[in-house]
Amino acid sequence: MRLPRDSPFSPGSDTVPEVWAGRTSHLSDWRDVLRPRRIAGRHERGRTILGEAGSGKSSLVRRIAREASQSGDWTTPQLRIPSGTDPLKRVASALLDLSEAAGLAAAREKRIGDLLRRVETFAVSGVSLSMREQDGPEPHIALIDLLIEIGRAAIRHGDVMAVIHIDEVQNISDENALSQLLIALGDALTHEETVDVPGGLRIERALPIAVYLTGLPEFADMTGARKGATFARRFRTTTLGAIDDDALMSALQPFVTEGWPIADDAGGVGRVFMEPAAQRDIVERAHGEPFLFQLAGERAWYAGTDDLITAEHVRTGWRDAAPEAEAHVQRILIRIPPRELHFLEAMAALPPEERTLTNIARSLGYERTSDAGPTAQRLDLTRGIIRRGRPYDFRHRAIGAYLTSEWPWLNLG
User: Does 234 lie in the same domain as 376?
Assistant: First the structure.
């Protein structure tokens, strides 16, 4: 008997979902590139993962952090930055916790003790207040020094990484605070430490530190212009797109072939199965969106109590989920500037085979096709909503479905 308490689906919770789908390239990047290179002392940039709400960026990095922690690495929690708050204060507090894991609090060196007290001051009081209260280096300099000390401790410990995850980075509206934060993280990533190696040689190596920044696509604009060149050298930015339908089908395949395990009333293990038709229906309604995938799966689970999820359960559950699915897409569209939204509407109004930049520009009333070029570029590279090609199409397939059809209200009969 399946109950709501046993559902493995978790839409919108920012947790690591039990039913995991896709993002294999990003997980492989952590396992096969970033961690091994940093552990070996090789330089590797920080990672900035951007995407619209519901794209699964926070869940992705939370999974990476969980894997890191299980490997013995020192990890911060998800450091969510609310609007109007001091990001350096939030990061300082987390780094003090990392310093505990690194054993720095027990260090007898006066230099480290002074550094920890300095960071503690603005972790409690905030940056602006602590700068007025005492002399000394600016807060971001103290953060750099503490990050370096944590990295040195990781080197001494051996095969350990320090992993820092800062979320909702688009909320850092203070340019000075953003600049100081990015410089502190970037300087720690590029720091070179002199170490002894067998044979009596001394070499320079990078610190075993990894930094993940996650947020909305607008963050790309915030790190452009004056900050862009330095930021791009120190961080690699990825904008998440939709998950391939094959990956979503694979995530649900255990339900079809072996059943999803749940605790039964007798203290044993029961299993919940899924019809192949239900599997396909969930994937088709999700349009590659992690949030919608979890939402469709959750509501299908809630739509019955027996041990088989049917296509009818998916349809019944989706009737309840459709308003939330529609609101999800509308929240994304509301944030898009009018010029970009008009571009999307003009593109959606054209037959798929006629979605060229020339036709879209003509529909918008532009005299020259090139006038629509910058908007198309932003919607592709910055927002990840369209894919420029011959013809253009929607990378964010849920937005495309919403603008071109009756989704999410289709097939509810």
Answer: no
Which pTM does this prediction carry?
0.90
Residue 85, pLDDT > 70, answer: yes
| Sole residue written with tokens 């493995």 | 8
> 239, 271, 299: which is the final residue of a domain?
239
For residue 1, tell me if it sits in a domain.
no
Residue 245: other Cβ atoms inside 10 A: 17
CB-CB contact of 245 with 252 (8 Å): no
Query: What local confidence, expressed as pLDDT, does residue 229 receive?
Result: 63
Whether residue 348 contacts residue 400, with contact meaning beta carbons closer than 8 Å, is answered with yes
**Domain end call among 239, 256, 284:** 239
Residue 271 CB-half CA count within 13 A: 9
Task: Give me the domain span that covers residue 117.
Answer: 24-239
- In CATH, what number is assigned to the domain containing residue 340? 1.10.10
Q: At CA 257, angle to CA 318 and CA 56, rounded to 5?
A: 50
- Judged on CB neighbours under 10 Å (0-12, 13-18, 19+), 25 is exposed
Q: Tell me the DSSP string of 99-124.
A: HHHTTGGG---HHHHHHHHHHHHHHH
The domain that holds 318 is classified in CATH as: 1.10.8
3-state secondary structure of 33: helix
pLDDT band for 290, please (50, 70, 90 cuts): very high
Q: Specify whether 188 is located in the same domain as 324.
A: no
* Same domain for 216 and 101: yes
Question: Which of 137-141, 259-263, 373-377, 399-403 is least confident?
Answer: 137-141
State the total domains in the chain.
Answer: 3
HSE-CB at 130 with a 13 A cutoff on CA atoms is 21
Q: How far apart are CA 219 and CA 239, in angstroms?
A: 11
What are the DSSP calls for 285-299, one per residue? HHTT-HHHHHHHHHH
Residue 131: pLDDT above 60?
Answer: no
- Hunting for tokens 């605070």 — which residue is that? 177
Percent of the chain, pLDDT > 90? 69
CATH of the domain at 102: 3.40.50.300
CA-CA distance, 309 to 359, in Å (whole number)? 45
Task: Note the pLDDT tens digit of each residue in 291-301.
Answer: 999 999 999 99
CA dihedral 93, 94, 97, 98 (to 10 degrees): -140
